[in-house]
Automatic annotation (TrEMBL):
Region of interest: Disordered: 186-215
Segments of skewed composition (Pro residues): 206-215
Native species: Inquilinus limosus
Name of the protein in question: Uncharacterized protein
Biased composition (Low complexity): 186-195
Length: 215
């Protein structure tokens, strides 16, 4: 039986291997639970239905369900064992500590670029959002080794719906950084991040219609 884990503090990024392992184990638990409930329902149906020529082959059904449960449990143990072996290899090679340091460095870089200095509590809010995004977004987590700090800030700002400070980005990147992909579950309301009106559209007069050619 799984024990409830106590609240140990703010959300921290976890590796994609652990995320997938937990997902696979959850699905296997669902399969085993469904098979066991089906077996019980089959027993009840077996006791209710009168024997006859059209009676289903209940022993065969139960045998197949039992085999499915055994295979699911064996697969669960295999997934756990393989994950444990991979974790030991990563610890021995220093990969786990390197990934943890890389994530924390990326989080702090994003905080410096996105958080508003005038609001001290904004830094912690951005830190939690970025950590949560790294935890949930496996693609972004893998890209830590591929993106430069500036590219990572642009990518994570689009995902959390908060634009970075244009002065932090290299020249030529500021205009692109203001286009943010707003994420509904994490983005602040529109009024929290006012944006200047597009001068190329706002205030532009509509040209009069052209006169038809009388010739």
């Amino acid at each position: 039986m799984d024990m409830a884990q106590p609240d140990s503090g703010p959300i921290k990024p976890r590796d994609t291997d652990l995320h997938w392992t937990e997902w696979a184990l959850d699905r296997l638990r669902e399969v085993v639970d469904l098979d066991i409930r089906t077996m019980r329902a089959t027993v009840r149906e077996h006791e209710r239905v009168l024997r006859g020529a059209e009676m289903p082959d209940y022993p065969l059904m139960q045998s197949r369900l039992s085999r499915s449960v055994r295979l699911s449990i064996a697969m669960t143990e295999r997934i756990r064992r393989d994950y444990y072996l991979r974790m030991q290899a990563r610890i021995a090679s220093g990969e786990q500590e390197r990934r943890r340091a890389k994530r924390e460095q990326a989080v702090e870089t994003a905080v410096k670029a996105i958080a508003r200095p005038a609001e001290p509590e904004d830094a912690e809010r951005v830190r939690l959002l970025v950590r949560e995004r790294l935890t949930e977004d496996e693609v972004l987590d893998v890209q830590l080794d591929l993106l430069s700090p500036e590219e990572f800030v642009r990518a994570v700002s689009r995902r959390i719906g908060l634009p970075p400070d244009p002065s932090w980005l290299p020249p030529g990147w500021a205009d692109e950084a203001v286009t943010v992909e707003v994420v509904a579950e994490t983005a602040e309301p529109a009024e929290a991040w006012p944006r200047p009106a597009d001068e190329s559209i706002a205030g532009r007069l509509t040209p009069p219609p052209s006169k038809p050619d009388s010739s």
